[in-house]
């Protein structure tokens, strides 16, 4: 250390000051990105909680709607049965002209667990027999 000249001490001082300046710039640049990342993560968490809340509300809405439709269907079935029995009692068998048929009354009494028929009677489309051939 005794052999060091003033020029070496000046170079060490300048290197120390430049190092501090570069360190300050690096910290300044990374500090902003860390804040931005934390802010983005907080926003993401907020959006996720809002999405979960909205999903729960939608599920609740459709569950309530399904229950209301079941009630509505049952009420319409009761109303139809009431009209059918009243028309039979008031008009008699001859005069009611099929307004409320027994077939429709029993059709509304089907089990709700029964699968609907999703097929047509006979063939259709390409396999349909063409009876109007020349």
From TrEMBL:
Classification via Pfam families: ZapG-like
Composition bias, Basic and acidic residues: 111-120
Subcellular location: Cell inner membrane
Keyword Magnesium: no
Membrane topology classification: Single-pass membrane protein
Superkingdom field: Bacteria
Region (Disordered) residue spans: 107-134
Residue spans crossing the bilayer: 6-27
InterPro entries given in the database record: ZapG-like
Assigned keywords, A-Z: Cell cycle, Cell division, Cell inner membrane, Cell membrane, Cell shape, Membrane, Transmembrane, Transmembrane helix
GO cellular component: plasma membrane
Name this protein carries in UniProt: Z-ring associated protein G
Organism: Haemophilus influenzae F3047
